[in-house]
Write a structure and sequence with these properties.
Layout lengths: L22 H6 L5 E5 L5 E6 L66
Antiparallel strand pairs: 1-2
């Protein structure tokens, strides 16, 4: 996998939930507390969720670690940053550049256009 700036997260090439996860995950997607690994194929493989009880259906396939204790989060434990990824914000690495092109520009071809 390519090196990325992990301070902004990790891009998933296959962001949809694994087909073996409970139906709830297919409707809502990943949840706060999901613990897993990013696979070589760019998917996130959920192993367990620290915020769900030990007997939750998500834990059927991999189980939970020994001495697992559910973490109960309160509303004040969850922070929202609504403007962190706003429209027009460009996230890029050093190898990617951003250019704004005026909409008044047009392209033309000379000679025979490629088919």
């Amino acid at each position: 996998m390519a090196q990325v700036d992990k301070s902004r997260g990790f891009p998933l090439w296959a962001p949809e939930p694994d087909g073996r996860l409970p139906e709830d995950y297919h409707r809502t997607g990943l949840k706060i507390g999901d613990v897993g690994i990013v696979t070589q194929y760019g998917a996130f493989d959920v192993l367990f969720n620290i915020c769900l009880p030990e007997n939750h259906p998500i834990h059927r396939s991999h189980g939970v670690p020994p001495n697992f204790r559910q973490v109960i989060l309160n509303r004040q434990d969850i922070h929202e940053f609504p403007f962190a990824d706003t429209k027009g914000l460009v996230l890029a690495t050093q190898s990617v550049s951003h250019r704004t092109v005026p909409s008044s520009l047009s392209t033309s071809t000379s000679g025979n256009p490629a088919a």
